[in-house]
Design a protein that fits this description.
This protein has about 675 residues and is an alpha+beta fold. About 35% of the residues lie in helices and about 15% in strands. The chain has a 5-stranded mixed β-sheet with strand order 6-7-8-2-13, with helices on one face. Helix 6 (about 220-230) packs across helix 10, helix 8 crosses helix 9 and helix 8 crosses helix 12 (about 450-465). InterPro entries: ACP-like_sf, CAT-like_dom_sf, Condensation_dom, PP-bd_ACP.
């Protein structure tokens, strides 16, 4: 049983520059006698939980305590911790279709105790593993009780297991360090029989959430979004080399593979950063941008990085989810040398910090209100340097603490819920090697690609250290993971191995959406190897409606590329494949009928209740300016009550239309 580390284990350093607004407690605290609005970060985590369908995305603490444990003192310490920090006793119910937070009273039994010491050794270990699995691995329910989970298992007189699981909607890693320090202080005081309760916090996270919601009113939000639109005008998602074509929808199946930068290389990088008067983050990010630019053939690349986002003294000692993202635009134009790229990257980081005012979920929503971008350029590629020290359990009385879980084998793919196509995670605690995790979406990449990306990254770093005056074209070789992108011939070979495949050959164009970002979309041609039912989908159905009816292979390439591939195939004398040349393809039909049958009319009525107007036709997209994920959740809540089936948010986002929801219902209801 393994889980992904905390989101929020972020780079705590911040260069000089304009400061975001600081929260300062003023006036009476928010009333706790009823539901309260979520902060922007909490709402983002709540929606992420809906997209992951409750799958854990945090790493629980499971430690073995050996020695004389003062059980009553530890349980009292957890009770004190729960009284002091409201986030530990906050649940998140859905009220009238809107997620809220409710702070509950402290529980009488904050740390349940299970005594297995009387069982035989083998049975004791198996039972402890079962309890840990049930306690920490079951899907998280945010609504019915606070999602924090903890338990103490007595294995013997001088051996215990401590289980603690705190989800990201409750606390980030900075908060985990604060909670850990408080717990150790409380246990020490109880152990020694002296009063030592930490001082009461001046404000709690619910007060911060109320302040944040009041600050980001419509006028201030619109002003910040205008700055973001000007900054990112014309940027599109990177055209990364993939191992397979991008599927329809927004469902992710991510994994990470562990790797490292060895100790010698890591120390050289730290020394180089000091000599160049930049942070280690800037050096590592510049090399990552150089790698991305070559792989995507782009002069500008966009990456996002986690930051602690603790702005102001009042939140330094406050627990809750504060972590946010820093969006950095890498400028690789003109084939600069690496030293020049360092300068550009440092300046880009300063600009990025100046833009870290509006909470990132509001930026994502505001720059793509109609959910047209797939992938969203701000969610596609991530680069994280984690330097927040992990919590250290240092119990009074000389308890020895050890972790019972083995580390994953190098190169072993570990599943993880995530929203990015591609991410690098590095960990720096000042000395020694830098652990590296390569995170990839399994729908797009094979596990073997992770090692290839890591190898190329190390190669770029070593070349930059050897000669920082070398041009990027000399540092980065054109060969590596995904050098041969998914093309027509590979798709044909895949089609030949399948039975009854519905295949689409689509001409793509790039179009700017009203907010200035660019989106690639299908515009013209469709070639079909008929599916089992012999149908040909409408344009709106290429991405959504074909799914579930027949296996689909979708090739997204500009028309010129398709023609070149067809000509090369003909020149080589290859037999005709499953896909015809473009001149034999048909135009994608446009338009669609209005809601007509009973199911469509009922869906349209729920649509009207939420958005204030019915859809004009069954393929009209639900998302539009002013319609957010919360509106989608309200719509899906009504659909669930009417049809007695829940449409997952991630499936709705794949086809946010009346016809898309109807298709899902038809596939999942026995009788319609």
């Amino acid at each position: 049983m393994r889980f992904w580390p905390w989101r929020g284990a972020a780079d705590r350093s911040r260069p000089p520059g304009p400061e975001p607004a600081r929260f300062t407690p003023s006036g009476p605290p928010a009333p706790r006698d009823g539901p309260m609005a979520l902060s922007v970060t909490q709402l983002g985590e709540w929606i992420f939980d809906q997209r992951c369908e409750g799958v854990l995305s945090h790493e629980p603490t499971i430690v073995r305590l050996e020695g004389t444990l003062h059980t009553a003192a530890l349980r009292a310490a957890f009770a004190g911790l729960q009284r002091r920090h409201e986030c530990l006793r906050t649940r998140f119910p859905l009220i009238d279709g809107v997620p809220m937070q409710v702070v509950e009273e402290p529980r009488a039994d904050a740390l349940p105790l299970v005594d297995l010491s009387a069982l035989p050794a083998g049975l004791r270990e198996r039972e402890a593993a079962r309890i840990a699995e049930e306690t920490l691995s079951a899907p998280v329910r945010l609504d019915d009780r606070p999602p924090v989970r903890q338990a103490l298992i007595r294995m013997g007189r001088k051996e215990h297991l401590l289980l603690v699981g705190i989800p990201h909607i409750t606390a980030d890693l900075w908060s985990a360090t604060l909670l850990n320090d408080d717990l150790m202080a409380l246990y020490g005081a109880c152990h020694d029989g002296v009063p030592g309760r930490p001082p009461t916090a001046a404000a709690q996270y619910a007060d911060y959430a109320r302040w944040q919601r009041a600050r980001w009113d419509e006028r201030r939000t619109a002003g910040e979004l205008a700055r973001w639109r000007a900054r990112l005008d014309g940027l599109a998602a990177a055209d990364l080399p993939l191992d397979r074509p991008r599927p329809a929808g927004r469902r992710r199946d991510c994994f990470f593979v562990g790797d490292e930068l060895d100790g010698e290389l890591s120390e050289e990088l730290r020394a180089f950063a000091r000599a160049e008067n930049v942070t280690l983050y800037v050096v590592l990010l510049a090399a990552f941008h150089a790698l991305l630019g070559q792989a995507a053939g782009a002069g500008r690349v966009l990456t996002t990085s986690l930051t602690a986002a603790r702005h102001g003294r009042a939140v330094q000692e406050m627990t809750g989810p504060f972590s946010d993202y820093l969006a950095v635009v890498g400028d690789l134009t003109g084939d600069p040398d690496f030293r020049e790229l360092l300068r550009r990257t440092r300046d880009a980081c300063l600009i990025a910090h100046d833009f870290q005012r509006l909470p990132f979920p509001m930026v994502i929503e505001g720059l793509d209100p109609a959910k047209e971008l797939h992938p969203h350029p701000l969610e596609q590629i991530e680069f994280h340097l984690h330097n927040t020290p992990p919590p250290v359990l240092d119990f009074a009385g000389g308890l020895r603490v050890s972790g019972p879980l083995p580390e994953p084998e190098p190169g072993e793919a570990e599943p993880v819920p995530w929203t990015a196509d591609f991410a690098f995670e590095l960990y720096d605690y000042g000395t020694g090697h830098l652990p590296l995790h390569v995170l990839l979406d399994g729908h797009l990449f094979d596990p073997e690609s992770a090692g290839a990306w890591a190898d190329r990254y190390r190669s770029v770093l070593r070349a930059a250290l050897a000669d920082p005056t070398a041009r990027l074209s000399q540092l980065v070789t054109p060969h590596g993971p995904g050098a041969e992108a998914y093309d027509v011939r590979r798709a044909e070979e895949e089609l030949e191995r399948c039975d009854g495949v519905l295949a689409a050959l689509v001409v793509m164009r790039e179009r700017r959406i009203p907010t200035g970002l660019a989106v690639r979309e299908p515009v013209g041609y469709l070639a079909l190897a008929p599916g089992r039912d012999g149908t040909r989908p409408h344009a709106h159905g290429i991405r959504g409606q074909t799914r579930g009816r027949a296996p689909t292979v979708l090739i997204e390439r500009p028309l010129a590329e398709i023609r070149r591939a067809a000509a090369a195939r003909s020149a080589g004398g290859d037999p005709a494949g499953a896909l015809p040349p473009p001149e034999e393809c048909a135009w994608l039909p446009e338009g669609a009928p209005p809601p007509a049958d009973e199911v469509e009319r009922r869906l349209a009525a729920h649509w009207h209740d939420v958005l204030g107007a019915p859809p004009a036709h069954v393929t009209e997209r639900f998302y539009r300016p002013g319609a957010a994920d919360l509106d989608a959740i309200r719509f899906l809540t009504r659909v669930a009550a009417d049809f007695e089936i829940t449409v997952p948010l991630v499936d709705f986002m794949a086809a946010p239309t009346v016809s898309g929801v109807k298709e899902y219902l038809l596939r999942n209801l026995p009788v319609m």
